[in-house]
């Protein structure tokens, strides 16, 4: 069935009252997201501590209602409950009911990265060609299908590395696409790290389907205790990339190639300064509005 979606953008201190009001007028679901997502002001929120509920300074709330719900009635009810809320701050749209997995599979086509690497969905059979390396993918609940520029930048970088017999760490593994690609490209073993247990589940499933599960170890960040890797890659966000630079330096062997992405244009200069303390040969590559920084772990720092 279709749905009616109401979108509001409010300050963090207003969020509890707005969420309560939406619940009072019959919202079937309410989701919160960073109003500054995919901008230079985007802020990452890590796994909160027990009893903590960290939020962004400005929040977008999306509330779903049954399709036949009267928009004017919702606006009037919210205006009574939240007198300060201006009617033009309320945005309505119809949301079609879809089989989201089927829709993704219909839209996701085979994609090439670099010289050899291809990502194929499960509904399309790849050709029998010894000159290409194929990763079969079902992203499931986690981000990472190759369609996003940051993932594409990291996949192309991996395709250009000499991975034969190497160990690889993929921080922020999501669907496991980068670690699995590294294994299919010749890496001896890989470690995937993510703070979302669902991501680790999706990574394990995708690794099993690609017949590399025996060479992929998966960890939550707090459980990771591994030797430095020969190759290091991280596709997260600029904020945590800056904060985690010292930890990433410890996770890479001296001389190890590394690449980081999840960086919007305009955010790279600060990260270049930050990473120069531990990494050499730094370079920047871009795709659309996104940036990849790559280089090598310095030998002695």
Automatic annotation (TrEMBL):
Keywords: Cytoplasm, Methyltransferase, Ribonucleoprotein, Ribosomal protein, S-adenosyl-L-methionine, Transferase. It is found in: Cytoplasm. Its main location: cytoplasm. GO terms for biological process: methylation. The keyword Glycosyltransferase does not apply. It comes from the Bacteria. PANTHER family: ELECTRON TRANSFER FLAVOPROTEIN BETA SUBUNIT LYSINE METHYLTRANSFERASE. Methylates ribosomal protein L11. This is Ribosomal protein L11 methyltransferase.
